Amino acid sequence: MQKAIDFEIERQVALLRAGKHAEIVQETRLWDEFKSQTFSMRKKEGLADYRYFPEPDLRPLLVTEEMVKAVKVGTHVYTYIGSFKP
Q1: Helix (H) or strand (E) holding 70
Q2: Quick one: pLDDT at residue 43?
Q3: 3-state class of 79 per DSSP?
Q4: Residue 31 forms beta bridges with which residues?
């Protein structure tokens, strides 16, 4: 999974730098372990294609303005709050 994410970051940044913004589309991509690259499987037309739904095992995340500012300036600190207890 990490290899695919790293590849996609590099692929999309290269497209942006080359001025090929239109080539970055919503799609499902497949990771090819032998070629160490991703391939398009299918294009997504809209939000309905993603079938978004709340993840029942994740608590809602409150993002404060202070958190956003800290991320922007690079002073954010990640903290582990504790184990999940439903």
Answers
A1: helix 65-73
A2: 83
A3: coil
A4: 38
Residue 37 burial class via C-beta count within 10 angstroms: exposed 0-12, middle 13-18, buried 19 and up: middle
CA distance 13 to 35: 20
- Please report the DSSP string for 23-67 in residue order: G--SEEEEEETTTTEEEEEEE--SHHHHT----TTS------HHH
In this structure, are residues 39 and 48 in contact, taking their beta carbons and an 8 Å threshold?
A: no
Enter the DSSP assignment of 75: -
pLDDT value for 37:
94
Q: How many residues does the chain have?
A: 86
